[in-house]
Amino acid sequence: MPAARNVPSGPDPVVEAIRRAIVSGDYAPDQRLVEADLSERFAASRGAVRSALLQLGNEGLVERIPNRGARVRAVSLAEAIEITEVRMVVEGLCAAKAAQRVTEEEMAELREIRRQMAAAVDAGAVMAYSELNNRLHRRVLEMSGQGIAEGVIERLRGQAVRHQFRLAMQPGRPSVSLPEHLAIIDALCSRDPDAAEKAVRHHVGSVIDALRGTNNSPPFSVS
């Protein structure tokens, strides 16, 4: 009898739902996350919610307080900037690796992302552009073949995602970041590791500068 195979499972829907609620501002920093309430809202068992909170705790989005349960972890702007500085170095490395490994099929995918990003900016579709932004960064990591680096970046992005979401919603920000993303894509499609690393570091560096500029912005909220 053949041995059973381990089939990789997809993302946990409860984890994804709670993460999305935190990122979008449904739950504020330091707000308590009550298992019973989450279970009712997301139609999930208490065990599934508890497991999801543990995973989100490992990602840095949630923290568990002894004898008080879980709450949304508050990440300061200074910490978000420090996280993004680490991302700048690691994502630059991944972009260089991706440029060395990119296939013709992946180049076609990148060019399609390029087209869609430009169209989203022209149409003023901020949320669509933000989703394409995340897709591009995720695909560069995947194309790099650097599994450890990919895991590190995903955890770091999770911790700073609230600040970056706030930044992405600022008027005019997509028009600023679009040329930076196009430069990344062009370098990858040219199979130029040095240019790809430089383009990513330039882009993430501009994110750091923009985050510093949000210090005097009105409090973040999503209506």
CATH class of the largest domain: Mainly Alpha
Question: How many strand segments?
Answer: 3
Average pLDDT = 85
Which value, in Å, is the CA radius of gyration? Answer: 19 Å
Domain module count: 2
Distance between the termini: 57 Å
Q: Can you tell me the residue ranges where pLDDT is under 50 for at least 5 consecutive residues?
A: 1-9, 217-223
| CATH topology tier name of the largest domain | Four Helix Bundle (Hemerythrin (Met), subunit A)
Find the CATH superfamily of the largest domain. GntR ligand-binding domain-like
> What characterizes the major β-sheet?
3 strands, antiparallel
Describe the structure.
The structure is a single chain. The protein has helices at 13-23, 35-41, 46-59, 77-101, 104-123, 126-144, 147-168, 173-189, 193-213, and strands spanning 32-33, 62-65, 69-72. Helices cover 70% and strands 4% of the residues. The N and C termini lie far apart (57 Å). The relative contact order is 0.14. It has 223 residues and is mainly alpha-helical. It is globular, with a radius of gyration of 19 Å. It folds into two domains: 13-72, Winged helix-like DNA-binding domain superfamily/Winged helix DNA-binding domain (Arc Repressor Mutant, subunit A), CATH 1.10.10.10; 77-216, Up-down Bundle (Four Helix Bundle (Hemerythrin (Met), subunit A)), CATH 1.20.120.
